[in-house]
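To the wet lab folks,

You asked to see what we're planning to order before we commit. Fair enough. Below is the target structure as tokens, and below that is the sequence we designed to fit it. If anything looks off to you, flag it before the synthesis order goes out.
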């Protein structure tokens, strides 16, 4: 893209293109191009995420292949835990390198290869064999994703100004949701054979990841020095003693995991609502992302603290409503489930945008990668444990699980009041 067009598009998308935002003079000169590379690369990655979604798409695929409940039940825990837990140990390797963009680019390409192999497995295997192979490939994909996650916030902080980072990630989320909506509509209205659509989506996801990695590799990233000494595996837990704000942030983020874990329980409460189809669920999530991600991103650039508060309040409110409706049998009323799921997904995307921007802006250049790794590892443990505990409670009362998620969101909003306005320090 010509430089003039790049500059114009950058100025159109952001509020304050001339503000340094904590960047070096050299990085400021490259920022318009860096900003757009982030948007396009992240858009491709997020489209791929939506096309392969383990909670919906892969679960449907394994069920259709007759893999059995065991392998299908492993999909989400494997994907979520392996995408977060390893970061405590991969971050020292990343921080030891002067240029980190290759980790994100390589991780994206590896995710693309795994997605294509999952598509091939879906075409050629069935039964428990298909389940074992696809879950194994998903584990590798999740590990590659963990490398992307551990490296991304540091790269974003080095190449995009502090007042524009939420806009970059929010724009990418909104752009990606358009493609996922198209996929959801194809599924919802049974346009074509569903198995063909799902397998095609897996191959397409692989292509998006590989293309995103190739584009990200062209990012102009300045070398870093001396960061490797800041993060040495388990020694990163010392950061919890040194920075009370980091402890509070991790606590807020951990309490907000209910916005991610709750959707499957909605469907359990109303299995015959007519909104439990694959296409409808994907559509609800994608439309919520389209309408909210860019707005959440812009708000995060002004105050990520307030975004976390608002998302917590929104999540607590909608989950409280669902708990009440579940207790009186009102969740099965037509249009109720799609409405509450839509609102919850808006809160969920607020959590994603707020926590990402807050972490990048609260840490300096040397701390971003270890802060990210420590936070993700702890939250990965919380997700794994909470998923198991709430699944056990759900065997007794799904409504109680939803109510507990609501309490957690309300507590997160209250705790987030004590977070610093980190954008004021940028």
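Sequence we intend to order:
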């Amino acid at each position: 893209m010509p430089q003039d067009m790049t500059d114009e598009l950058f100025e159109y998308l952001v509020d304050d293109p001339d503000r340094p935002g904590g960047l070096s003079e050299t990085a400021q000169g490259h920022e318009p191009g860096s900003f757009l590379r982030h948007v396009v690369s992240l858009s491709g990655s997020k489209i791929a995420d939506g096309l392969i979604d383990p909670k919906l798409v892969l679960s449907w695929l394994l069920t259709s292949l007759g893999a059995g409940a065991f392998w299908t039940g492993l999909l989400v825990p494997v994907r979520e835990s392996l995408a977060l837990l390893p970061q405590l140990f991969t971050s020292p390797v990343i921080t030891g390198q002067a240029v980190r963009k290759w980790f994100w680019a390589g991780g994206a390409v590896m995710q693309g290869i795994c997605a294509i192999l999952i598509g091939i497995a879906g075409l050629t295997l069935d039964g428990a064999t298909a389940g074992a192979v696809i879950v194994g490939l998903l584990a590798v994909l999740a590990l590659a994703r963990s490398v992307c996650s551990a490296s991304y916030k540091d790269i974003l902080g080095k190449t995009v100004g502090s007042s524009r980072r939420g806009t970059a990630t929010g724009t990418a989320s909104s752009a990606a949701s358009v493609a996922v909506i198209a996929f959801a509509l194809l599924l919802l209205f049974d346009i074509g054979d569903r198995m063909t659509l799902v397998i095609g989506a897996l191959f397409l996801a692989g292509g998006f990841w590989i293309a995103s990695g190739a584009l990200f590799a062209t990012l102009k990233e300045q070398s870093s020095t001396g960061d490797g000494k800041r993060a040495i595996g388990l020694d990163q837990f010392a950061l919890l003693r040194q920075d009370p704000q980091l402890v509070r942030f991790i606590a807020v983020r951990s309490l907000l995991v209910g916005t991610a874990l709750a959707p499957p329980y909605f469907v359990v409460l109303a299995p015959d609502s007519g909104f439990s189809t694959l296409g409808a669920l994907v559509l609800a999530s994608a439309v919520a992302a389209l309408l909210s991600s860019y707005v959440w991103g812009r708000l995060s650039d002004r105050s990520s603290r307030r975004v976390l508060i608002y998302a917590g309040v929104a999540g607590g409110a909608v989950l409280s409503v669902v708990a009440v409706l579940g207790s009186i049998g009102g969740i099965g009323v037509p249009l109720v489930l799609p409405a509450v799921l839509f609102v919850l997904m808006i809160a969920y995307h607020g959590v994603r945008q707020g926590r990402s921007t807050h972490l990048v802006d609260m840490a300096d250049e040397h701390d971003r990668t270890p802060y990210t790794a420590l936070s993700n590892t702890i939250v990965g443990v919380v997700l794994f444990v909470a998923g198991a505990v709430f699944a056990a409670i759900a065997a007794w009362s799904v409504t109680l699980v939803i109510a507990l998620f609501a309490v957690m969101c309300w507590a997160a909003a209250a705790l987030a009041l004590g977070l610093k306005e980190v954008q004021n320090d940028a």
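Structural context that might help your review: The chain has one domain: 3-14+24-425. The chain has 17 helices and no strands.

Thanks,
Computational group
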